[in-house]
Each structure stands twice: as C-alpha cells, then as structure tokens.
Please model this.
Amino acid sequence: MANVFVTGASGMIGMAVCEKLLQKKHRVYAVDEKSNGLVGTDPNYFFTQCEITDSKTVSDIIMSNQIDTVVHLACTVDNDYDNMVTDAEMKKAKVTDKYIYAAADKAGVKNMILTSTTNVYGIQKGREPIRETAPEKGNGNYVDMKLTSEKLMLKAFKKSDTIPVIARLAPIYTSEFTDNLRERIYDRKDNAAFIFKEGEYAFSFCCMFNYIDFIMAIVNVPQGRYEGIFNIADKRQITAKEIVDYEREHHRIGAVLQRSAPASVSFNKGKGKIDYRYFDPNATFANWNIDVTRAGNLCPLRWNLKNTK
Model:
C-alpha cells in the first residue's frame, strides 16, 4: 500500500485516478476546491476541500502523511480548467507549483508526477515521431504555463531524492469525453464539421486510461532510472475518418463537409493563445505523431478508441 496525494482530485482525470488507486488498495489523500462522489465511500480516501492556493493546508497534508507519490493534476485542462487559460490562471499555477514542489522535497516524497502537455512541441518539421528531445515550439498560455511548471519542477528537485516525472500528455479522450477529438474535425469559423479527402490523415491522442496506467506504474515504483520527461499517448494515431465514424456511431455529429486539402501548413497563433483546445484546420497536415517508446517501457498503453470506456 502506498500513500498517494492527488491534486485536482474532483476533475475528470482526478476522479478516475483516485478510483483506480483505491481499487488497488492504496491510501489516497486528495484535494480540490469542489467536493466529489468518492467522499465517504472508502476508508482509504481522505479528501480535503480547499483552494489549491491554500499553501498551508495542502503543505500540511504532504508533510504529515508520509506521502510516497504526488500526482499533480490541479491547474490542468480537462481536469480543473476548461479550454480557456487566462493570465490569472497562469499566475495561480506558478504560485501553486512552487509551494507544492517545496513541500514534496521537504517531506521526502519518492515520486512527483506533473501533468504537462504534448502541445509544448508545436508544429515539428519532418515526419519522424516526436520524441521527448524534440524542440519546444508550441505557443499559447497553456504551453507557457506548463513549460514553466516543468522548469520549476526540475530546478526544485535537482539536488533532491524526490524523483521528478513530467508526463507530457497528448489531448485526452474517453468514450463520453470527445471534445479534443472533435476539435480536429471541426472548423469554428464555418461552425461545421469537415474532412479533407477521405480523412486518412491522423493525430496523436491519449485515452485517459493510458495515463492512469502510467501513473499506476510510477506509484508501483519501477526499477531503474525513470525520472524526466515522458510522452503519454496511444500507441497508434487516430485518423480523421475514425473520429467522424466514432462520433456518428454515438450520434454526436451531423453533416460533415468534404474539403480540398490546404496548400500549406500554417497556424493562427493569436486564436490559440488563450483557448487550449483551438485547432487551426490549416495545421492539419503537420507532424502530430508522438513517440511513446519511453512510456511504453513502463506500462502497456493498451487503451485506444475501440476499447475505451
């Protein structure tokens, strides 16, 4: 049994992570500004309702309970934030990261898992899979926020026994949450779904349960060196046609326009600055192939669009 501390525990990812940890008989200490349905259901679930900026309350939990792993999900889109990331939220995340890292270091936490994003890579040249060593060309508030979180984390644990794990998460989905999938086949300008040619082009996404399996692998303390950056995504990309077919099967999409492919790859930086989920159709044929070899060495990444739940 491990003692695991989860921030952003009432968000979509946070709830699923806590449920899985409890299933595996771990002791879960959780915080969020909102309550959730797990409260009072399991004697190993200890929930504190507070703002994530409440440094005293949160630090006391970390310092007082011999925490083995911190799973930092607060200040993450698809968990605590919606798709809009403002300057105020960026400032809030920075303040939060600093004190949580300090508390984890002081308490001697074994593992610190930060949820980041593959959006930090932006548009890459060439067709080679995008590895953790690729240049960080992404832009927008969420990218800036997460790159700051990563840098603060690596600095905080540079001389620490705590192992820093940065999970660069591809846009997530489940059978019911498909907002990130739909954004790749939806043109906000025309307010309509679309597809180029036959929709054979593809994107990297992450079934939420692949990320949960990765977190569980870190909680179980794998052998060898496993600190640093990990790309987390499905093993196989999802094509535009598969997204359209999936949404049609679940009656969540209407007419789909068929278009000619754009002449060149471009990206509207202005529209994507605050809105994390905004996707410029002109960037469709850029390289969105995320390499997951490193994460695959720790967990099977077995989930995909066909078996998600």
